[in-house]
Amino acid sequence: MTTSSALYDVPGPKALARHRLYGGLALLVIAALIGWVVYMLFHTHQFTYQKWMPFEYRGVQDLLLRGLGNTLRAFAWTVVFALPFGALFAAGRLSDHRAVRWFSTLVVEFFRAMPLLVMIFFIFVAMKVQPLWALVAGLTLYNGSVLAEVFRAGVLAVPKGQREAAFALGLRKTQVMTYILVPQANRAMLPTIISQLVVALKDTSLGFLITYEEFLHAGKLIATNLDYDLPFIPVVIVIVPVYIGMCLLLSWLARWVEKRGRRSPKVRGGAPIAKAGVVMGLPPEAQ
User: Fold this and answer.
1) How far apart, in whole angstroms, are the C-alpha atoms of residue 281 and residue 233?
2) Domains, the chain, ranges and CATH?
3) Has residue 67 got a pLDDT over 50?
4) 0.85 exceeded by the pTM?
5) What are the contacts of 226-232 at 24+ separation with CB within 8 A?
6) 98-119: burial string, b at 16+ Cβ within 10 Å, e else
């Protein structure tokens, strides 16, 4: 029995025929749904020249590009602040000091439970913060709190023996965290971190509710213009692929970083404990 068939029976001729039939029926259903959507778009006159004409104007193109730039600016600042925020409070939740651990837990749980839109509105209205920084602050507090739990879970997922061996070599807790636990946890945490960053990128669209001129806000200005016959669907068709493309780019970046980490000589050959001993300058007998 081969490895591929160890957990299930290899389908015979009749089963293969059924699978092909089910696959063909599924393709027909999907094709019918796509055809119905396209038909309804044509039936409601969503592809008329009048609705797509606005995208020929330089002013509309500049508006979309400016909105896209503002979206990327808000996302970049969110990443810059959210990652250190998450790392700091993850370390706090792993602290041996009870007061630090309780305070970090309170902060993380509070901002994770608070609706993101409420935080953004509170910072914008009550604290009179500019739209960009109100959006960035809300995204940082929420996504940073989620990332704190991701970091904490990733560190705790490292086998306990790694921590014990490092302490046996005489490393301090900070050194164990920096040189032993975090490097090993990075690979497991990276997909979840990128997924959360994708969420943060999409949540920048909430900025239009506080008049921040991001990508969705620019699309709204175009879609609600009576002079262009309210081109809502054309705006969606233009904006959605851009968001999808940015999210796919983040996913590709995560895979590239992961593959690069696997090829890096710093993570090949030799145990992490021995490498940490060399880095920390421990005597040979301690390494």
Assistant:
1) 63
2) 49-279 (1.10.3720.10)
3) yes
4) no
5) 228/50, 228/51, 228/53, 228/54, 229/48, 229/50, 229/51, 231/51, 231/52, 231/54
6) eeeeeebeebbeebeeeebeeb
